[in-house]
Amino acid sequence: MSNNEIAKQYFDDATKLMETDNWGEATELLKQALVYAPRRRSIRLNLVAALIHLERKVEAEQSLREALSMFPEDGQFTYLLARLLVETKPEESFKLSKTIIAQENLGSEDLISLGLLLSDLGCGSEALDTFEKAERLAPLPIVGLIGKARALSRVSKYKEALELIDHAIEIHTEVEDLLFERAHLLEASGDITGSLSQYNDLLAANPLLVEALINRGNVLNSLGLFAQAAIDLKKALSLTANTEPTALFNLSKSYNGLKEHDKAIQALEQLVTLYPTYPSAKGILLHQKMLCCDWKDYDRLVTEIQADLISGITAAEPFGIQAWADSEFLIQKAVTLYTHKFYPLCKSKYKGSRNSSGKIRIGYVCGEYREHATMILMAGVFKAHNKKIFELYAFSTTAPSLTDYSRRIMSHFDSFNFIHNLGDQQAGELIRSLGIDILINLNGYYGAYRMGLFSLRPAPTQINFLGFPGTLGASYMDYIIVDKTVVPKDSAQFYSEKIIYLPRCYQPNNEMRPAFNGSYSKEMLGLTSSEFVFASFNNNYKLTPTHFTLWLKILEMNPHSVLALLLDNSFGQQNILNIADMNGIDSSRIKFLGRCSLAEHLARHQAVDVFLDTAPYNGHTTLSDAIWMGVPTISLAGTTFPGRVSKSLLSAVAMDDLVVRTPEEYLSLATRVAHDPKFLADLRERLARGIKVSKLFDPIGYTLELEAALRDVFISAQTS
After folding, report:
1. Cα–Cα distance measured from residue 421 to residue 423, given in angstroms and rounded to the nearest whole number
2. Which of 74, 183, 561, 630 is most buried by its number of CB atoms within 10 A?
3. CA dihedral sign of residues 203, 205, 209, 211
């Protein structure tokens, strides 16, 4: 047999296997076929299709690059590579797309496929141009109409997009996909109620529409109606043999919202078993387990996530990875992959209203304008801002909080705007219309964040500050505000933003913390006055198995001591007690505390002898609370932004000798303070002196330095 005949035999056998879903065996036969006919396009195309089906995207990319080395002008191979790189290498994907656009004689179907690709890349204007070219060649089919509507929404033309879909519904008989798109457009435009109504209509006509159940569940999740969302999502799963990945993922969100972390873990474990590369699923699974202090399979999950990230798979979400990763490179990799996949830059230049007030207009985007850690830190800055130079605009991503505390915060702004019920495009238009000069992102990837809003570039200068301790991996975030401790000069390479270094600790602090009526004793915690109280009020997801083992050793070496933890979920409490019992520590020596008011939280520190910090993610606001209340804190030096915050804060009050380099030093220092009352008293006295002379709790001085930095970037933007 000739080489071509052998190749054909392998190809035909592989085709039959693909028809029966035997993709793995088919892949091996297609590879054999290429050995005998390396330049046959049909073999290469089927191999790429099989590899993509098997989620073996690295091999698919390699095969496509080999094909393009042989057929550099081949539009189909170029398109397939561009489509494959949308998530991991969007810039290269866009460049490849432009080479296809430049080709002549593209048909309507080719242009529609290209338009869909450009839309997925966030290139709304380019996608819209491409769909209009296709429309000039032939009337758009339903898939083209949907693509054009999405492109219109990308450039904020929601009204036109909805009109297009409504007209298509009138003239087509098969309208289910169009109705789905209408619901999607309503949601994207911020009309959540309208979107929900549309899904209700779809499901009233056909209660078994799996996609409608999933999408309505997602809308209900966004409205905080987690129990109702779970009903829809479980029904969708029952109709798909419990294998539909989006339903499993969204169901885990519902359970998380309901604080049913055990069920969230079950849903995510099933998801990663069926779909190991589902975006961010492994990372969110690990985060859910850490919320419950469930460290079974911790090492395996960490190893798998690291390997996936290195190979370009979006395996973790930005917030969760900071709790366990001690590598700035790995965190940057995870965040950048996530940002490129979910919040790429929309290819639109800044076009805003000109600010004619003569003042610099600062916009703060935040979801926590209430009694919350972010506001505890920022309240003094808002109050101290120089209103003769700056105009302050607040953009709240959450609904109003009708408390005296929130009203006091709101009173510091020239304009307070609620954007929780606006889509990103509408919120962006509002910000542009107000002529905001500098837009500050106080959430990053924390809480009720709105990265999609920032991706629209609604302001000429955009700054990452405070809420998320790390890079956002986004070209549209211009600066990050830090100090030289949390981001040393040699760490700047791991940040996509330009660095603004403040001359003091990067963390603002408010000297006006609420007071508790009366004192707080150890007895009020259910302890005796003779017990030595170690405590950590950090969130439990910051606790790793290695660090908790270190705490148990401290308890073992100091039999008269107890450990107080802020841990208010029963799953985490039971896991902690089980691990303590396995290590010979009596459960009575671990005291769990629930959530309480800020005043009572601060007062609890009066019953604490020493604060134990977590690693590799330190306490941030909780640590400044401990400092304010005069409680010495023992911390382990970290190698990332969230792991260097303790060094920054404790250095600000001349207590950086409490930041040790090794677990052995941590254990030794904890034992010394527990056994040496004079040493502990000296530490408390030093801390009290450090607070008095420190600039840490000086919001007026802090704000002056922050404003100097903001003026510099404003001038830079004006002259560039």
Report:
1. 7
2. 183
3. negative
> Omega before 514 cis (within 30°)?
no
Helix, coil or strand: residue 5: helix
Task: Please give the helix or strand (H or E) that residue 38 lies within, else none.
Answer: none
- Measured CA to CA, the distance from residue 477 to residue 479 in angstroms comes to 6
pTM listed for this prediction: 0.89
Domains present along the chain, CATH in parentheses: 360-511+701-719 (3.40.50.11380), 522-697 (3.40.50.2000)
Each residue's pLDDT tens digit, 219-252: 999 999 999 999 999 999 999 999 999 999 999 9
Q: How far apart are CA 629 and CA 433, in angstroms?
A: 44
Paired tokens of 241: 């043999």
What percent of the chain has a predicted confidence (pLDDT) above 70?
A: 99
The answer to whether 221 touches 253, Cβ cutoff 8 Å, is yes
Angle between helices 90-101 and 124-137 (to 10 degrees): 30
Q: Which secondary structure element, helix H or strand E, spans residue 415, and what is its range?
A: strand 415-418
Assigned token pair, 387? 């209103």
3-state secondary structure of 540: helix
Which residue has 């969708």 as its token pair? 236
CA separation, residue 676 to residues 265, 315, 663, 670 (Å): 44, 47, 20, 10
Q: Tell me the angle at which helices 245-257 and 261-274 cross, rounded to the nearest 10 degrees.
A: 160
